[in-house]
Amino acid sequence: MKLNQGLSRKDQELEYQAQVTQSLESKLKIQEGLIGEKDSELKTVKVTLQKKEKELEEHIKALKEIRLLYNTAVMDKVTLKQELSNSKRLSRTTALDVPKQNQLSQTEKQLYSELQSIQREVNCLNSKNKDLEFSVKQHEDQRSQQKRLSITDKNKWASRRHY
C-alpha cells in the first residue's frame, strides 16, 4: 500500500513536471515567434533606412552639382560684368559695339534667370534633405526602440526560465 501511494505520488509529480515543461515550451515558442516578428520588423526598418540613406546621398550629390553650376554661373556673371564695365569705359562706341552690349545684357539676363532657377532647385533640395534627415532620424529612433524592446523581452524570458 505504501508502495502504491509512493508510486502514485511519483506519477503525480511526473505529470505535474510534464505539464510545467509543456507550458514553458509553449511560452518559449510564443516568445520565439515574437522575437522573429521583431527581427523581421528590424530588417524591414534597416532596408528602409538604407534606401533613405541612398536617397540622401543622391540628393547631396545633386546639391553639390547644383552648387558647382551655381558657382560657375556666378563666375560667368562676374566676368560679363567686368567685360561690360570695360566696354563702358571706352569713350568711343562703334556701330559694332552696340550689338555686343545688347547681347551682353541679354546674356546677363539669361544667366540671372538661370541663377534664380538654380537657387530654387538648391532650396528645394535643401528642403528634401531636411525631410530625409528627419525621416532617417525617425527610423533610427524606431530601430533603437525596437532593439531595446527585443532586449527587454529576451531578458524577461531569460529571468522566467530560472524559475
TrEMBL record:
Keywords, in A-Z order: Coiled coil
Biased composition (Basic and acidic residues): 136-156
Coiled coil (UniProt feature): 42-69
Keyword flag Coiled coil: yes
Segments for region (Disordered): 136-163
Protein name (database record): Uncharacterized protein
Top-level taxonomy: Eukaryota, Metazoa, Chordata, Craniata, Vertebrata
